Amino acid sequence: METPPCKYFKVAYPIPYVASVEISRVEKGNAFIEEMWNELPPLFAHLSTSPTTRVIILSGAGHKAFTTGLDIQAASQNSILSSSSSEPHLDPARKATQIRRHIDSFQSCITAIEKCEKPVIAALHGWCLGLGIDIAVCADVRICARDTKFAVKEVDIGLAADIGTLTRLPKVVGNGSWVKDVCLSARQFDAEEAYRVGFVSWVGGKGGKEEVMAEALRWAEVVSGKSPVAVQSTKEILNWSWGRSVEDGLRYTSVWNAAALQAGDVGEAMRAGVERRRGRFEKL
User: Fold this and answer.
1) CA dist., res. 123 & res. 98, Å (int)
2) Which candidate in 109, 169, 206, 241 could, as Cys together with 249 as Cys, close a disulfide (CB 3.0–4.6 Å)?
């Protein structure tokens, strides 16, 4: 299974079973154009089912930014809302349908990260603005360099964030007042504040991008050495249970594990623990 060709994402395997996906449009601060987000679904669908991938590190190329968000200049010229693409003969209902379909498609592209069966750790540094927050909240784990600067910038360009931040961020941090503060004001917040509210789970020292990438690789190596059945099952159950009752989550877990516990991974994990060695698990 070959990785789909990507113009704006660099994919590498720094160690076995760990895929590094790097947003690569350095000359524009890794800002997104439509061609970029359209590359995400086939890429993450491939990684989701690739037997040689167990963990994914998502990062931004260069030292200045994870991503500065949407490329505003390109969007103003080519988006469905731009004057060059307007169709004055359409009535409001038909124009609204066009816009809704465009937003739905955009949302689906970013959600591809969240739907990936494999754990995704976002290694953030530099600027992480607008769409960068939408992307980060789709990851399972977020860590950042101390120099990282965040902002939910959409109100500054005249719209409500519509690709996932307003839906996922309140669930991620669990602090409605803080979420409304940063989303309504579009103010910047730094790595320490992001850690304090629970948006990220680790902040680097003074090492910048290199330090956060080293930590992401360390974490990914630990997780990739565990049973892929156990890891993927854990992610699936956590995601499914989010927003549902405890009773529903317990029932889903019992049904899921009725199949998963039949894997040989349980016995191998126990033997590896007793023998103090790394487990040897079949590809999944």
Assistant:
1) 35
2) 241
